[in-house]
Specification:
alpha+beta, 19 strands
Length: 479
């Protein structure tokens, strides 16, 4: 990455011109700092006039589709249900293994949702591309959904989901079990509360077809299209190697609760195709499906690895630390620049993350920033608190962290910062697994490690961060 010019020492902060303010409809791209990818739910979008609005209200849950039958009752249920769909839809061939796998996966997810304290709905993309990384295929799933809907066992609604993950708004079909489906499952002795007794997670794959994913530059709607990646390309082969090795390593690692399927690495802001792309934007390692990265901080504290309790090691103020290091400017109030007298630390962090996720300053808090701030407090077990006035937070933050004053003119962007961070975290996770035989789960700017390996993991993570960033990080244990 080329050297960047240092900030203008003569710049001051009153107010930036209007051209330096983000418009209301300005959205960030894939995995930008302004949009946390750790949020498990998605709000319902516009509901069609002929749908029942009440069933699509509240939070939705991603259909991970990584569960299969795990009891004699479930086997009987799926076999009989598959045959019923065959007869009702006048299929001319018996249900295939792939059809039954898709049926079992959908049933498990629907029952899982109904078992929640506040059942909502499930969502999943319905393009073939949305099934690329799964054992459940697009066509079998589509046939299952068509058949279940025709028989009155499934509510289904096409539309949009608004969320704070990869894209601010994306197409997704919503699914919900009907009362008839719950009754039918009950006739086989299967009730939503006991869904885990009857459906087990499919075995983790030792390898996946696409460990490296490239998303295109955002369009005005904030959606980055997945681009073709040539796995024969030497650069792609090299990038895929550590991901392939981690997937093979984690094949039989016992993780409870079992919320991990496989890893892949998503590069962002692709331009011109994979052969001319620089492979230096975004690049975080994600757990495919409804994985542990979607769990709240409190929930992640209960994760065990091979039967041992874990601790989450977090790199304090990772992106702002990287920015200062690359600009050769000392980090103010090291190790925690987000601690400013008179303000909640979370409010300062919210301002910084939403700023780093764009190329200009915002004129006010966005709806996403307010929602994410509230959710972050809930996830950490903190009482509700409204964000302070935006101008007060902006003024205090830019006085405390003056490097941000020139952010609109910076040659660094969120994709650069995220890439540098990901290089450090991936190296640490890979080294611990492949060299020291210590299974470690990455969570973007933190890692989850067995308690007995805390000191070793902290040393390896610190060394990797210093290697890629040029400064020793402050690492904090979350429990």
């Amino acid at each position: 990455m080329p050297d960047r010019q240092a900030r203008n020492p003569n710049s001051i902060y009153p107010l930036k011109p209007q051209s330096f303010l983000v418009k209301e409809n300005d959205r960030s791209c894939l995995g930008s700092p302004g949009h946390s990818s750790d949020l498990p739910t998605a709000k319902a979008g516009t509901v069609a006039a002929n749908a029942t609005p009440s069933i699509w209200q509240g939070d939705g849950y991603y259909l991970s589709l990584i569960y299969g039958v795990g009891s004699p009752q479930a086997i009987s249920f799926v076999d009989a249900f598959a045959n019923e769909i065959e007869v009702a839809t006048a299929r001319t061939y018996k249900p295939s293994k792939q059809f039954k796998m898709a049926l079992a996966a959908l049933l498990a997810n629907l029952l899982r949702i109904e078992a929640k304290a506040n059942p909502a709905y499930g969502y999943h993309g319905m393009s073939p591309d949305a099934f690329r990384l799964l054992q459940v295929g697009y066509w079998p799933f589509r046939e299952v959904a068509d058949g279940m809907e025709a028989l009155g066992y499934l509510h289904r609604e096409k539309g949009y989901k608004e969320h704070s993950g990869f894209f601010a708004k994306a197409v997704a079909t919503r699914f919900k079990a009907t009362a008839s489906l719950i009754d039918k499952a009950g006739s086989y002795g299967i009730v939503p509360a006991d869904w885990r007794t009857h459906f087990h997670r499919l075995p983790r794959p030792r390898a996946i077809p696409h460990p490296i994913v490239l998303k295109a530059e955002c369009n005005p709607k904030g959606k980055g299209k997945r681009m073709y990646v040539d796995r024969r390309d030497p650069t792609v082969i090299a990038l895929a190697r550590p991901i392939d090795e981690l997937n093979a390593y984690f094949y039989d690692v016992v993780i409870e609760p079992d919320r991990h399927y496989a890893f892949h690495r998503i590069f962002a802001k692709g331009v011109g195709g994979s052969k001319t792309y620089g492979w230096d934007q975004g690049a975080r390692v994600y757990s495919i499906g409804d994985g542990y990265q979607h769990m709240s901080e409190i929930e992640r504290a209960g994760i065990t690895i091979n039967g041992e309790a874990t601790v989450e090691l977090d790199i304090k103020a990772s992106h702002i630390t990287i920015l200062h290091a690359k600009m050769k400017v000392d980090v103010p109030n090291y190790p925690d620049p987000y601690t400013i007298d008179g303000f909640d630390r979370g409010a300062i962090k919210t301002f910084v993350t939403m700023t780093l996720g764009h190329t200009k300053f915002h004129p006010d808090w966005t709806d996403d920033s307010r929602k994410n701030y509230a959710k972050s407090r809930t996830k950490r077990g903190l009482p509700p608190l409204a964000l302070p006035p935006f101008d007060d937070v902006r003024r205090a933050t830019l006085q405390a962290i003056p490097l941000l004053i020139d952010w609109p003119d910076s040659s660094y962007r969120w994709g650069d910062l995220q890439f540098i961070e990901s290089e450090a975290v991936l190296e640490a996770v890979h080294t611990l697994a492949m060299v020291r035989d210590v299974p470690v789960l990455p969570v973007h700017d933190s890692i989850i490690v067995p308690v007995s390996k805390r000191a070793l993991a902290e040393a390896v993570l610190s060394a990797a961060f210093q290697k890629h960033v040029g400064i020793k990080p402050f690492i904090e244990a979350k429990r």
